[in-house]
Amino acid sequence: MPGSDKPLLIRIFNNTSQTDQKLRPTFFYIPGTAFIAFERAFSDFQCAHIATVSHSQVIAINHRLAPEYTCPTAVQDVYRILRYLLEPQNRTQLKIDMHELAIGGYSSGGTVATLVAVAASKEGIRFKKQILMSPLTDLSRSLRSHRKEEAKDNVIPEVFTTRFLNLYFGKNAEQVSDTKELKRRKDSPWASPLYMKIPPYMPAADITNELFERFRSDGEAYAKKLATYGVLAFKQSIEHKERHGYWWHDLKSIEGVGKKLRFLFGKQSIPRPLTNIKSSNDYGGPLRQDKKFVKLRGLISPQF
Predict the structure, then answer these.
(1) 173 domain residue, yes or no
(2) Where are the alpha helices (DSSP H) in the chain?
(3) Which among 5, 47, 113, 189 is least surrounded, fewest beta carbons within 10 Å?
(4) pTM (2 decimals)?
(5) What order of strands is seen across the sheet that includes strand 10-13?
(6) How many domains is the chain built from?
(7) What is the pLDDT of residues 75-85, one digit of tens each?
């Protein structure tokens, strides 16, 4: 991308023909990197699967990493790439539908995604929704509401969280942060979404956390903050005894994001009335249509 001192990687996933000239609903996805580690294998699989299930285009955006590039480089990189992709010539080439946009990310990618959504809202870019998986929203690590459950997460220990946040803020990995440093992490522009002012037209948010995971407090606190600003926020704490790494292996969670996007972009099947219903027991038994049984009374279940 022009103007960058280092190539920044984007990956585009869609299941439509290259000759198809229709505009494509587009989901911008920021992978979780802990701000310090590049990965591709997991996010390639996740994005490809989401694109297939959602019938939409997924664009994965990477950013430069700490400790060489500290806060707020990650947010600046992703926002600059987003604006570049949405320039008229580029969005036409990629067939991006400007009326069907969503943004999201996992872990630190969720942090970046929601901060980019704030910046975009201020400049008139309208996302229909943020889809955030286990976002880290308080980079001062001062939330305590679910510390007991979070302590059971052995995938992302707190000591590792301390190290990567220290590196992201330009400190020694082992440094113990004092009160002044923690306040800086709350107050710095483009650092902690939980402490930012929410602008008008902020997109609705779908926030998912597992039961025993490191950033559960962050997700729930951010959902409450959005609600105080009148932003619709759906918070789902999945009652599975999963840790932070669920997004790496849980196919149902990945499919769930695809289904949410499919519904958001109007790609789901429309329920239609049943005709010639035959049932036993006045709808008490199974419904039949053309030798097919369905569970809903009077409707065929949408096929997601």
Answers:
(1) yes
(2) 41-54, 73-85, 88-94, 108-122, 147-150, 158-168, 179-187, 216-228, 246-249, 251-264
(3) 5
(4) 0.86
(5) 10-13, 57-61, 24-30, 96-106, 129-133, 204-210, 233-238
(6) 2
(7) 999 999 999 99
